[in-house]
Amino acid sequence: MPAIVLAAFLSGLFVRPLIKDERIYQLYARYVLKQPSHKQKSDENGVFDTVAKTNFAEHVTLHSMPDIETRRQKLSSFIWRHAFSPFGRDPDRVTEASKLPFIDIAAVKQVQKLEIHMPLGVTSVATVLVPRKSRSCLMLYQEGHRVSFLERKRLLRRFLEAGCHVIALSLPLTGGDNSRPEINHPRFGHILLNDPDKFEILETESFSTLQYFLTPPIVALNHALKQRSFKHIAMAGFSGGGWVTTMVAALDPRIQYSYSIAGTVPLSVHAAALHWGSYEQRMGRLYEIANYPELYVMAAAGQGRRHTQFYNQDDPCCFAGGNWQYWATALPPLVQKLGGNFETREYILDRHSIGREVAVKVTDDLISILER
User: Fold this and answer.
1) CB 114 within 8 A of CB 128
2) 356: three-class secondary structure by DSSP
3) Cα-flanking dihedrals φ and ψ of residue 81, to 5°?
4) 120 near 183, Cβ under 8 Å?
5) In 3D, which of 296, 281, 352 has the Cα closest to residue 320?
6) Distance of alpha carbon 308 from alpha carbon 339, whole angstroms
7) Which of 164, 204, 209, 297 has the CB geometry, 3.0–4.6 Å to 137, for a possible disulfide?
């Protein structure tokens, strides 16, 4: 055996460089190209065949409002295990803030900052924008990964001009106000927490990092409702903020109208399209409690509630294509039986963004609700 190994080594070392016939390499290249790819390919409409085969309605095991309330309790126990629940909790600090960042929005009357402190020195700051001409309307807006909500000032202006109070949030560790602490992890050493994706390494059996995403909007909503009552409460979010919007609306029935923009897809799509979304969107233990179709139902269920999804057909980042059509038709009948409404809409943009078309649709929808 050693002699065979030595002969093979010497052949590779001295003989192979002498082979000049390109046909050998061409044959090898064709052999490599014929090997099956581990990636799934979508059809001309961006649909994966495994998604088209999935009956999303049969994966929903929620048939009544008590079912939904039980599931909310299970989700809350998983997300805030060994931590204080955000429901009923107040911000840790409330301060009056400068209107300077919003000087180009004439509709802003007053600005407040709400500090929400969380474990390991992570602090998120929610910004409350009070309109000059106020209606009984509150809109929470949640931005996505790596971008501040200040990038969406034109959208915030639309909400304020409609007469809505606005609570604007960037994801934890992003934006200009949120903290980026350095921690000394007992297993991994010194780590600068400067990107929400880094939370994944902190997840343990006794500690859920999901609280970092979901605590701030719920605590901010608590504060707003202690200041005054609102007839209409809505929430909108983009990308990772669309995921937060879906989760908060599923957990908190105080959110009546929710708009998730380029935000989530069920796990059957994640399994087919690798690298779509961050770790929190693919956490199996979470979605075993409530899968995405069930979360969509929970976000919409209840008298007068509605959950609307927007998907960018040409999104270069994630959630592109027409996969959404398969749960867009399956889920509305289930939601209607529970008193709510579920809608899914498509838009086309050559970048991962909200775009004017969607901003107008969300605002017009909100205004139509206010004028009923």
Assistant:
1) yes
2) helix
3) -60, 130
4) yes
5) 352
6) 15
7) 164
What's the pLDDT score for residue 276?
81
- Which residues are 211's β-sheet partners? none
Q: State mean pLDDT over 135-142.
A: 97
Does 42 or 246 have the greater pLDDT score? 246
Q: Give bridge partners of residue 236 from the DSSP assignment.
A: 141, 259
**CA-closest candidate to residue 310, choices 272, 348, 260, 353:** 260
**Within 13 Å of residue 192, how many CA atoms lie on the same side as its CB?**
3
Between CA 220 and CA 224 the distance in angstroms is 6
Closest C-alpha to 116, from 20, 14, 211, 10:
211
pLDDT reported for residue 161 = 97
Show the tokens assigned to 184.
Answer: 């000394």
- Is CATH 1.10.4030.10 the right assignment for the domain spanning 49-370? no
Q: How far apart are CA 25 and CA 23, in angstroms?
A: 5
What is the reported pLDDT for 40? 87
Nearest to 366 by CA among 262, 258, 268: 258
Output the DSSP codes for 155-197: HHHHHHHTT-EEEEEPPTT-TTTS---EEEETTTEEEE--SGG
Q: Where in the chain is the domain with CATH 3.40.50.1820?
A: 49-370
Measured from the Cβ of residue 269, the count of other Cβ atoms closer than 10 Å reads 25
Closest CA to 329 of 320, 339, 317, 342: 342
Q: What is the C-alpha R_g of the chain?
A: 25
Of 206, 202, 182, give the one whose Cα is nearest residue 194: 182
| Residue type at position 247 | M
| Residue 21: pLDDT band with limits 50, 70, 90 | low
User: Could you please report the per-residue DSSP string of 225-259?
Assistant: HHH---SEEEEEEETHHHHHHHHHHHH-TT--EEE
Alpha-carbon span 234 to 112, nearest angstrom: 19
Cα 16 to Cα 3, 5, 28, distances in angstroms: 19, 16, 14
280-304 pLDDT, tens per residue?
999 999 999 999 999 999 999 999 9
Structure tokens at 325: 């059509």
- Beta-bridge mates of residue 113: 95, 127
